[in-house]
Structure formats: structure tokens, C-alpha cells
Amino acid sequence: MISDVPVGVLLSGGVDSTGVLRYAAEETSNPIHTFTMGFTGEEFADERPYARLAAQRYGTLHHERTMTAEDFATVSRSTFGIWRACFRATSDCSLLCNTACPRIRIKVLLSGEGGDEAFGGYQNYRNLLLLEGLKSSFGPAKGLLRFGLRLLGQAGWQRAGKYSLLVDPPLEEYYLSRTETPFTAFNQFRKSIYTKDFAEYLSNKVSDNPTKLFFAKVKDQSILNRMLYVDTKTWLPDDLLVKADK
């Protein structure tokens, strides 16, 4: 917080970014700018009410922006050179607060990126812990577990159907990162979109090998710690921290 320029915090109102804001506020008497992005439409979680509570608690100069589809297209074109890639998630847009709030120029930005990977904050960690516990409990009869999850999937709980595919392989064979398994869409369809030579080059054995090596280094750790370790070696440096650094 020793800075001669204004400092901002990307604030979602969640534990990670609010914790960062709390410690930042304790270390400075200067005003802190906070930024929260909302989106039009009905399929997006609205974080703004929670962010307002945190901003009020710590007396920040709070800024909100609601992004429309047209705004997204404009921002994507103007900032493509920063990422050298296309946007993939709404969280990518939240990093563009200087573009969204052009009258406020912030050179130092803090965020809560990486907190969930350090402390197991994502729902998938809890769900896979439960799944692995059930697999152990069913033992040789885990085929019944697979069948039950498939039934739940057919009844409308789509996530259960996806988890049924993970009953047979061990964790180190299906957990490629927080969002990837051998059964996710791209991994299933790659053989149909790759040439034969390229598909053979990127065989399952080659693709899975780095993850298996990471699992081998923490084989004596708990299931949760093993997943967190893999994500700190894959998901963070290959995704979240890349966009934050850029």
C-alpha cells in the first residue's frame, strides 16, 4: 500500500476480495477505489449488493458498471491486445474496470484471484470430496453408485450424470484441473476436430502426464490438498494469474 498513485480493489463482496480490501484499508489513510461489474440478463449472478456492503463497511470510493452485450463487444475489441486471446468468462471482464470507468484512472489494482485455490473455496472441491468418499464406501459395489448417479442425471440433475463418469477412474486420472476432466466437452470432441496426426501427438497419455506427475508429488496428502496442489500448478499459472498479470 506504499504507493504514490491511487489504489483500487476489484470487489465482488466475496471472502477473498473483501479480505484483501480489509487489509488494504488497514494499511492506508488514503481513499481506496473499489470496482464492481454487473451484467444485463437473467443468467448472471449479481455480486453488486454484496460489494456495496463491503464498500460501505470500509468507506471506499465505490464504482459500479452494468455491462451490456454491446459494451462487451466494444471492450473485447479494444482490449484484445492485452490478452492476446478471446474472453472466456464474465470474470475476465471484471478486470477491465479502467475501460469500464474511463474517468477514473487506476494504476494499481488488487484482487482476490487465487484465494479459492488456496483455501478450497470452489464448490467442485466439496462435490468431489463427497464423490471420492462415496466411491470408497461402495467399494466393489461402486457400479451401483454409477447407476444411481446416471438415474439422477436422467431425472434432470445433469451434474449427477457427469459425476457418474468419474466413478470408475481414480482421482489422478480424471482430475486434470478445476474445470477439466477427460469427459468435458473439448476433450470428448477433440478427436473429431483434430487431424489424425495431431490427435495422436496429443494422446491421452501425453496430455495427462503432467497432472499425474503433480499428483505423485503429493500422493500422501489428503484428497483436498492434492486437488489444490494440482490447481496451483495448472489452473492458476495457466489461466487466472495469466489474465491478472496481463
Task: Walk me through what this model shows.
The model has no long low-confidence stretch (mean pLDDT 84). Helix 1 (15-26) links the parallel strand 1 (7-10) and strand 2 (33-39). The chain has two domains: 7-113, Rossmann fold, CATH 3.40.50; 119-241, no CATH class. The chain is built from 15 helices and four strands. 58% of the residues lie in helices and 9% in strands. A four-stranded parallel β-sheet has the order 3-2-1-4. The radius of gyration is 21 Å and the shape is globular. The longest helix is centred in the middle third of the chain and has 16 residues, at 123-138. The protein has helices at 15-26, 48-58, 69-83, 90-94, 97-100, 115-119, 123-138, 142-154, 158-164, 171-174, 185-193, 196-201, 204-217, 223-233, 235-245; strands spanning 7-10, 33-39, 61-67, 108-110. The chain has 246 residues and is α/β, with parallel strands linked by helices.
Q: Classify the beta-strand content into a percent band.
A: 5-15%
User: Care to count the β-strands?
Assistant: 4
Number of domains: 2
CA radius of gyration: 21 Å
Topology:
Elements (H helix, E strand, L loop, with lengths): L6 E4 L4 H12 L6 E7 L8 H11 L2 E7 L1 H15 L6 H5 L2 H4 L7 E3 L4 H5 L3 H16 L3 H13 L3 H7 L6 H4 L10 H9 L2 H6 L2 H14 L5 H11 L1 H11 L1
Parallel strand pairs: 1-2, 1-4, 2-3
Helix pairs in contact: 7-8, 7-14, 8-9, 14-15
